[in-house]
Amino acid sequence: MLLRISTFVIFIFFGISRSQINTDSVSVLLKNQLDEVMVTGQIGSQTISESVNNLILITSKDIKSTGSNDLAELFSNQALFDLNVDPALGTTVSIQGMQGNNINIMIDGIPVIGRKGSQIDLSQINLSNIDRIEILKGPASVMYGTNSTGGVINLISKKNLNTILFNSYLESIGVYNFNADINKSIRDFDIHVNLGKYDFDGYGYDESRSKYWKPKNQFFSDFKIRKKINKTTFELKTSLFDEEIIDLGDENFFPFAGTANDLHYYTYRNVNFLKINSTDSVFNWNYTGSYSRTNFEKKEFIIDLISENSNQTSSQDFNTLDIFKTFFNRFEYNRFSGLRYKSQLGVDYVHETVEGSKILDSLASIYHFSLFTQSSFELTNKLTTQFGIRLPFHSSYSANLIPSLHFKYDMNTENQLRLSYSRGFRSPTIKELFMEFIDINHNIVGNSDLKPERSNAFQLSLSLIPKINDKIYSSFNIEGFLNFLDNKIELARIQNTDSYTYYNLEKSTYYGTNTFLKLDFKSQLNTVSSFNFMWNMFHIDNSSFNYNKARHNLSFAYKFEYEECNCGLNLNWRIKSKFEYQSYNDQNELVVFEQSGYELLNLNLYKEYDKINSSLIFGVKNLLDVTDVNYAMQDDIHSGDFSTISWGRTFYIQLSWMPF
After folding, report:
1. How crowded is residue 152: how many other Cβ atoms within 10 Å of its Cβ?
2. CA 492 to chain centre
3. pLDDT at residue 14 above 50?
4. Coil, strand, or helix at residue 138?
5. Dist. CA 451–CA 31, nearest whole Å
C-alpha cells in the first residue's frame, strides 16, 4: 500500500501518467555499503566487512536525501544520536549516553577545536564539502587518544575531479544557504575550492524586538591543493569559518528609553594542515600536521532605536575574547604481510593553548604525547584478531597504558560476529579546569579539582545479510555494549537558573543495544524502495543516582526512487522516548529529572534533470510541528521549564546545478 501511494504522489507531483511506465525489468544496482572503504580507526584502509570495528557510514547521498545543511540537522534523523538544542550555545550530541569531550569530532582526521562548554556546536559544521561521514562507536582511545571514550565522528571531504557544483537552499523560516564547490586538475595539481554563505533572520514567539532564535550569519570556505609524485601524495588545505550571532535587546526602561543593548557573538575558526601519504604494495605511511585556531568573541552595543546608530560599550563583562590554539602532529606506519597480518606503529603530539580574561593568569596550556601500535592477525580463514596499545604522556595527569582487543569471526562471506574490549582515558580540558564561559543567559564554571576519566568498554555484535540478489538486498545488525566509566566529567544545570558547573561522577555504567535493519528492493515498475530502521536503547547507572527508565531512540527512513523520471521521495521519522537526567534542584542538591519524549517527521520530493545536470528538492521539516517539550522532577511538574527541540514546521526548496 505504501509503495502504491508513493508512486501515485510522484506521478501527481511531476505530471507523469501510468502509460509512461515501462513494465520491463530494469537492472538496478543495489549498492552494498559493506564494500565501502573506511579509513577511521583502521590499519590502513579497509571495508566495513573487513574491519574488526563497529562502524557506520553516512554517504553524501544520505546527506542530500535529508536536506541537511549541517551536522546538527543530519543527526536529528538518526536514532544513534541524542541532540541537545540551545538557541544560544548551538546543538550538541551524545552517543549511547556519552557526550561532550567524550566524542572526538574530526574533519579529515583533524580534531575540531573550540568547544562551547564541553561540546562542539554541530550547527557550525556545514556539510556542503563532505563526501561521507565515518562513525566509530565506543572507545577509540588506542587510535585517537583522549576525547575518544564515547566514539569518533570523522567527516571526509570531497575529492571529485574537474567538477563545478552550485547549491542553493531556502527555508520558509528565513534560512538561506548557498555554496559553490569547484574541483579542477591543472598540470597534475588537484585544486579544490569550496565557498558558502548561511543566513538566518532569527525567529521569535511574540512582537518584542528580541528573538528566541537569534539571527545568525555564517561564512565558510575550504581551499585544498593536492599533488602526487610517484607513490607519494602531498595535500595542503586551509579552512575558514566565520559566524555572527546577534542577541537583539528589548527597549530599555526610563531614563534610557529609546535605546537597547545588543550582544554580538563571533566565532572564527581557521584550520591549516599538511598531509603526506606514501603507499606501496606491502606498506604505507602518512603524516598529518595541523595548526587550528578558534576565537570566541563577544561585543555589546548600545543602539539608538530612532536613529539606529550604535556604539560599543566598555563593559569588560560583555566585551570578551577567548582564543583556542592547537598544534596537532600525527605519524602512522602501516605494514601488510599479505592478507593474514597487518601492523601499525604511530606517534602523535598535541599542544593546546587557551587565552582569555576568564582563564587563570589569562593563559593556560597543556600538551600530550603518545606512542601507539596495533596488529591484526588472521588466525584462521574465519577468525581475525586485533590487538592495540597506546602509551600516553600528559603534561598534567598521569596516564596508564591503554589496551584494546578485537575479534571478528566470519561465519560465511555475508555473516559476521564481532567482540571487542577497549580501555579509555580522558584528561580534563583547559576549559573544564580553568575557564568560565559566559554566554547569553549562561554561566559555565570550570573546576580545577577535576580528576581524569577512565573507562573499560565491551561490545558484541552480529551482522547478517539474509538475502542479496539483483532485486533484493537486506542486512541486519544487532549489537550490545557495556561501558564502565570512572570519574565521568559532567556538566550539570542548576535548576531554575542558567548556571552550570563541572563535577566528577565516581562510577557510571552505560549499557544497551543497537539494532539496524536495511532492506532495498526493486519492482517491475522501474522503482526502487529502501527501508532503514534503527533502534538505540541504553541505560545509565551511576554512584549518585538511580535511573529507572531506559532511553529509547528509534528512526525510520523510507526512500522511493522512480527511475523512469529520475524522481522520488524521502521520508525520515524519529521517535525519542521519555528519559531521565541529573541536575541541581532549588536546594542545590543533585537529583533526577524527567524529560518528555517527542517525534520528528521530515518529508521531501526530489527530481533530477540529467540534460541540464541539476536537481530539485522540495520538502517539509518537522511535519508534526514540535517546538519544545516539558521536563520535570520526578513526581512533580514544574510549569514553564522546557527543553528546546526545534523552531517548528518549515518548508524548504533546494536546487543543485553542475554546469559541466
Report:
1. 27
2. 22
3. no
4. coil
5. 47
Instruction: Give the separation between CA 167 and CA 176, rounded to whole angstroms.
Output: 11
Task: List, edge to edge, every strand of the sheet that includes 55-59.
Answer: 55-59, 130-137, 151-157, 103-107, 110-111
User: Would you give the distance in Å from CA 484 to the centre of its chain?
Assistant: 24
Q: Cell 506521478, residue?
A: 11
**Environment class of 591 (CB within 10 Å of its CB; exposed 0-12, middle 13-18, buried 19+):** middle
Q: What angle do CA 68, 71, 72 make, to 5 degrees?
A: 90
Number of other residues whose CB lies within 10 A of the CB of residue 42: 24
Helix or strand run (H / E) with residue 12: helix 2-14
**pLDDT one-digit tens code per residue, 39-57:** 888 888 888 888 888 888 8
**Site of grid cell 580574561:** 357
Query: Using the 8-state DSSP alphabet, how is residue 2 labeled?
Result: H
> How far apart (Å, rounded) are the C-alpha atoms in residues 291 and 311?
35
CA 379 to chain centre: 36
- Sequence-ordered list of residues with C-beta below 8 angstroms from that of 252, at least 6 positions apart, any chain: 258, 259, 260, 261
Distance CA 97, CA 16 (A): 47
Preceding omega of 659 cis (within 30 degrees of 0): no
DSSP sequence for 245-293:
EEEPPPBPPTTSTTEEEEEEEEEEEEEEEEEEEEE-SSEEEEEEEEEEE
535 vs 398: which has the higher pLDDT: 535
Which of the four pLDDT bands, split at 50, 70 and 90, describes residue 298? very high
Q: Are strands 103-107 and 151-157 parallel, antiparallel or unpaired?
A: parallel
User: Does the structure show a pLDDT above 50 at 2?
Assistant: no
Ranges 370-384, 445-459, 500-514, most confident = 370-384
**CA–CA separation, 355 and 630 (whole Å):** 38
Instruction: Read off the pLDDT of residues 186-218 as tens digits, 9 standing for 90 and up.
Output: 888 999 999 999 999 998 866 788 888 999 999
Task: Supply the Cα-derived Rg of the chain in whole angstroms.
Answer: 25
Q: How many helices (H) and strands (E) does the chain have?
A: 5, 39
CB 453 within 8 A of CB 484: no
Q: What is the pLDDT of residues 364-415, one digit of tens each?
A: 888 999 999 999 999 998 999 999 999 999 888 877 889 999 999 999 878 8
- The residue-averaged pLDDT of 489-494 equals 69
Domains recognised in the chain with CATH numbers: 2-657 (2.40.170.20)
Q: Which residues on adjacent β-strands are paired with residue 393?
A: 369
Using DSSP's 3-state secondary structure scheme, residue 456 falls into strand
